[in-house]
Write a structure and sequence with these properties.
heterodimer, A: 261 residues, alpha/beta, Rossmann fold, 2 domains, 6-stranded mixed beta sheet, 10 strands, 43% helix, globular, B: 820 residues, mainly alpha, 3 domains, 4-stranded mixed beta sheet, two-stranded antiparallel ribbon, 3% strand
């Protein structure tokens, strides 16, 4: 469902000249699976997911969603994905129902089907009591529910969650994670980024550890534990990150010595 | 593009804005309440203001003639005002009745007391903080004395030995005294001081007697008539209160003098008609609506412009930067709506609010104005009637409001999208308002009327057309013709800024750039470090601005050099210097500093022979077309004639035996090299970097036009710039463009300096009565067809190449030459 092949993304940056946010990233995600992108802040997770959701264009490489190239047919891709992150806000002056309806219409769902679909989603997420509440008057948990409803209103085959639990309290985060798991059980292809190990352990079928734009390791959790002789995910993660950081520092030193002979 | 989505987005945004209390307040409540409140405030202020009495001190009032009497008790006699009792009551006259304190006299307390006792205004009890009459009189006497001294201090005119130092001393004394008088007058409690000279009444009486005697023949006619000393009226016109009081005093004095004059005529047995020997009578033909229209014609266009801008601005900030700030932008961007649908939906929303704000404001203001005029009554209603403009002008206002709002809405949306936060967005309002206000103020000047040129300048076109239509002057029906260019150009500008907004929505750095600390040093280092083979868009724009600024600075030096012995040749020299230093140098310098490949930036590649041929051929073909076009445009007054100074310069350069090579060097070789390096070299390379060649050529040719300053030259240059840009891109080389530029300028030089050298045959070539060459229609047609074919060929070649690049079969321009 998702195929990412040798993806590069570079930004111009006042300090470092060109900043490489993604460096030769490749992975694939199948339907009915949750793929976890695990990495610290600034690792390139958001950049990668934004490329998949077509709001950023890759510098080089291929990214496909459901067989559709994100560069060649961004509208097609956008119709097939649901995207949710801590940045995707909701409108303050719109009620929950209006908000979900609005996006449903933008996705071109016929009106009669849309109403049925919305009722269905509101049932699942138990949000009937906030249906007429304005966004500005909702608690964080309610907002997050609306966000999820908005993400799945058009029943997309691929759903992208970019740190959906960041900044949420434990209860809300738990509800979100449950929703994600339920979606997987419906056979959706889900990509999920986070920096919290617990979520990965609980939720993800396969993970990739990403840092400084590079994928450091990829596989199911048992596979990784096997490969690196480290059964503790947290320790594994820190090892990998530390190694990558040393590498980057080495590269920088190297690059610096080239400039100043 | 799906209109369903546009409508969906539009409906949502409108609903969202309507739920926003601030927007609603700004757009509906404010105008509906603001104008009536302001009106009430103004009325109140006027009422309180008019109650204030101004004090006028008249010294030596006893010496005024008894008949006709200027004063009536402690006010001016109501006879001296045309309409009644109202005006004398606005002034309080404090008249000193005795002769005691005359100009040079000594003022002791006793005489003053007598003064006050005898002055009829003495019963006026001073209010708190006010000076008593006695104090006022003391001040008045003091001032009168100083003024007398001041007038007696005349500068010696004969040139004596020590006259210079004398004069200096007196000058100093005078100015010190002047300062003192002005300061004292300011601090005094009165606003006007009237000084009646000593012996005024006696002089007046004796004059009258003499006139009488003369007319009765008792005296010989050549006797000198005693002249009457002048009454001095002291005021300070820098002070509003003093000016107002003075105006009233002056009115009375003028009428009073008229009465005396009539009395004199009577004494001299002359007919009263002699007062106005050249009888004049003024006839007003303006109808009442027209007078009103002239008020509205100034108010409404200005208000329309300002209100449609502010009405567009605040919603735009919310819809653009606000959406980014709240994080809903990303949500919207990942919906399947296309960027153009998003922009259009938002644009229509903003435009709706802009139009609504303008209309509501106008209605509220118009109604308030009318209400006020009828409310506070006769005073204003007599002079200006505030009758609302008729249906026709109102319709025009609505029609013209639409393109105006469209322009502001799209511009504001683009700015708001560009801004990182609502706060940054707010900062953009001030410069935008300043520019728009400046343009509007320019239009309100009565001498500015709509012309073909003005009809394509944004904001100015709508304002001027509306002003003309509202004025409803005779012949304003012809103005309707201008509606076409005004509407078309306004729509064009709106489309341009909409396109900009869409571009911004497509640009990821604008959508996701974070507010980061700006460091000038870092930024500069970054610019130097990350340089490429060819410049980037902002660098190209900066290069143009630099050239423009240098031209602006140079204007002063270009103008002042007309006084040298041979202005013509120094002019020629200046042109070469200006071309080299102000056009070629900035481009070359920026090229060296900011790019890695001068060859790629300035297109220094060997062109094919065909390309050179096309360049030269096109120049020959373009010459007659551009000459006849500019002649036509001047004849039909699309552009003003060349300004006198410019024509003078042209004449100067033509006269005198100048060798042809010199003229060619100055007018053809230098511009061909310098201007091409800058405009088709650095600037076009930078603009074309994104791969949008048509836009790059368009912008570069507009820039090329702008630096030619004089409107008709600018227009011509912009058209030729299009061809030059195409030529440079088609040939991938600067040399064909240089060849074109050289040939075109050389032909133009010959055309204007030596028209007699061409043989005319009457079919292709003939002569205008003024000796200029005239290219006849067959020649123009031929040139037009061949030129078209050549241009189409070039466009075909270029677009084929572009197509290949797009499909990845040819390396894109910058990728091929950029270092990997």
């Amino acid at each position: 469902m998702i195929r990412v092949q040798e993806l590069y993304k570079e930004f111009s940056d006042p300090r470092a000249g060109v900043f490489r946010a993604l460096d030769n990233v490749s992975f694939q995600v199948k339907a009915g699976e949750i793929y976890g992108l695990l990495g610290p802040n600034g690792a390139g997770k958001t950049t990668c997911l934004r490329i998949l959701s077509t709001v950023l264009r890759p510098t080089r490489g291929v990214a496909e969603v459901d067989g559709i190239n994100v560069v060649q047919n961004p509208e097609g891709v956008r119709g097939r994905i649901g995207f949710m992150s801590c940045n995707t806000g909701i409108y303050d002056r719109m009620t929950a129902r209006e908000m979900v309806e609005y996006y449903g219409r933008l996705y071109g769902i016929p009106e009669d089907k849309l109403q049925v679909r919305i009722d269905e989603i509101f049932d699942i997420l138990q949000m009937h009591e906030i249906r007429d509440r304005l966004g500005g008057k909702m608690s964080t948990g309610m907002k997050q529910k609306v966000s999820i409803a908005r993400t799945i209103v058009h029943d997309p085959p691929v759903i992208i969650f970019d740190e959906p639990t960041s900044g949420l309290d434990v209860l809300v985060a738990r509800a979100v994670l449950k929703a994600v798991a339920a979606l997987r059980d419906q056979g959706k292809c889900i990509i999920f980024s986070t920096h919290i190990m617990r979520e990965v352990e609980k939720l993800c079928d396969r993970i990739a550890v990403i840092h400084c734009g590079k994928i450091l390791a990829e596989g199911t959790l048992p596979e990784l534990a096997d490969r690196y002789q480290q059964s503790d995910v947290e320790e594994l993660f820190f090892d990998l990150v530390q190694r990558r950081e040393d590498e980057v520092a080495e590269e920088r030193k190297h690059a610096g010595s080239e400039v100043q002979p | 593009m799906s209109w369903k989505n546009v409508r969906l987005i539009f409906m949502r945004e409108v609903r969202d804005q309507l739920r926003d209390r601030r927007t609603l307040f700004m757009i509906t409540v404010l105008p509906v309440l603001l104008y009536p409140m302001l009106g009430l405030g103004v009325v109140q202020m006027m009422l309180t203001f008019s109650e204030q009495k101004r004090v006028v001190v008249v010294l030596n009032a006893d010496d005024l003639p008894e008949k006709p009497a200027l004063l009536d008790g402690n006010s001016i006699h109501s006879d001296w005002y045309e309409n009644g009792q109202d005006e004398p009551s606005r002034l309080r006259i404090l008249a000193a009745r005795t002769n005691a304190g005359t100009l040079a006299g000594d003022t002791d307390e006793a005489t003053l007391a007598a003064d006050i006792e005898s002055s009829s205004g003495a019963d006026h009890p001073p209010r708190h903080g006010e000076k008593t009459d006695a104090e006022l009189l003391v001040e008045a006497h003091g001032l009168a004395e100083k003024i007398a001294t001041l007038q007696s201090l005349s500068i010696p005119s004969e040139a004596t030995e020590d006259s210079v130092t004398d004069r200096m001393a007196i000058q100093e004394q005078r100015s010190a005294l002047q300062d003192l008088v002005s300061a004292e007058f300011g601090e005094s409690g009165f606003q006007v001081l009237v000084l009646v000279p000593k012996g005024y009444r006696a002089a007046m009486l004796s004059m009258q007697d003499q006139i009488k005697a003369r007319s009765e023949g008792t005296k010989t006619s050549d006797t000198h008539i005693v002249s009457v000393p002048a009454i001095m009226v002291v005021r300070n016109s820098a002070d509003d209160k003093s000016s107002v009081a003075f105006a009233r005093v002056q009115k009375a004095l003028t009428n009073w003098e008229d009465a005396i004059r009539r009395h004199c005529f009577d004494n001299a047995s002359l007919p009263v008609e002699l007062e106005h020997p050249a009888r004049l009578s003024y006839v007003e033909v303006a109808r009442e609506e027209q007078v009103a229209a002239s008020v509205w014609s100034k108010m409404f266009p200005a208000l329309l412009v300002i209100m449609s801008l502010t009405g567009a601005f605040y919603p735009a900030i919310d819809l653009g930067a606000g959406e980014k700030e709240r994080g809903t932008m990303e949500t919207l961007l990942i919906s399947p709506a296309r960027r153009i649908e998003l922009v259009l939906g938002k644009f229509l929303t903003i435009m709706l609010f802009s139009v609504a704000t303008a209309v509501l404001n106008l209605c509220s203001m118009g109604l308030t104005g009318q209400q006020m005029a009828s409310g506070i009554g006769r005073g204003i209603a007599d002079t200006i009637s505030l009758e609302f403009p008729g249906f026709g002008p109102l319709m025009w206002m609505i029609i013209l409001l639409l393109p105006l709002s469209a322009l502001f809405s799209s511009l504001c949306l683009a700015l708001a999208t560009f801004a990182r936060s609502t706060k940054e967005g707010q900062y953009y309002l001030t410069p935008l308002l300043m520019v728009v206000m400046g343009l509007t103020m320019f239009c309100l000047s009565p001498s500015v009327e709509i012309t073909p040129l003005y009809s394509v300048i944004p904001v100015v076109n709508v304002t001027l057309l509306l002003k003309g239509l509202l004025l409803n002057a005779p012949g304003s029906g012809n103005l309707v013709v201008y509606a076409v260019p005004v509407l078309i150009s306004s729509i064009g500008y709106s489309m341009l800024s909409l396109w900009w907004a869409i571009e911004l929505y497509n640009s990821e750095d604008v959508l996701f750039r974070e507010a980061e600390k700006f460091d000038l040093r870092l930024w500069f280092r970054q610019m130097l470090r990350t340089k490429d083979a060819v410049p980037v868009f902002p660098e190209a724009v900066f290069c143009f601005i630099l050239i423009l600024m240098l031209q602006f600075v140079a204007m002063k030096y270009m103008a002042t050099d007309l006084n040298v012995p041979d202005p013509g040749s120094s002019m020629l020299r200046l042109i070469v210097v200006q071309q080299l230093t102000m056009i070629a140098c900035p481009a070359l310098f920026m090229g060296l500093l900011l790019t890695t490949s001068l060859r790629a930036t300035f297109r220094l590649r060997m062109p094919s022979l065909t390309a050179m041929g096309v360049g030269v051929g096109l120049a020959v073909i373009a010459h007659p077309l551009s000459m006849e076009l500019s002649r036509f445009l001047v004849e039909y007054q699309v552009f003003p004639e060349l300004p006198e100074s410019a024509r003078h310069v042209m004449e100067l350069m033509k006269t005198g035996e100048r060798p042809t090579w010199l003229l060619l060097l100055v007018f053809a070789v230098t511009p061909a090299i310098c201007e091409e390096l800058a405009f088709r070299g650095f600037i076009l390379s930078g603009l074309a970097r994104g791969g949008r060649l048509a836009i790059a050529v368009g912008i570069s040719s507009i820039m090329f036009g702008i630096i030619h300053m004089i409107p008709q030259q600018a227009f011509n240059a912009a058209l030729l710039g299009l061809v030059l840009g195409l030529l440079a891109i088609y040939s991938r080389s600067l040399f064909p463009a240089m060849a074109f530029h050289f040939c075109n300028n050389a032909l133009a030089t010959f055309y204007s300096t030596e028209p007699h050298q061409f043989n005319t045959d009457g079919v292709f070539l003939s002569r205008y009565p003024d000796g200029q060459l005239c290219y006849e229609a067959p020649l123009l047609l031929l040139c037009g067809i061949v030129g078209m074919l050549l241009i189409m060929h070039m466009i075909k070649v270029v677009s084929k190449e572009q197509d290949l690049k797009r499909r990845g079969l040819l390396p894109a321009y910058q990728e091929a030459s950029a270092p990997v």
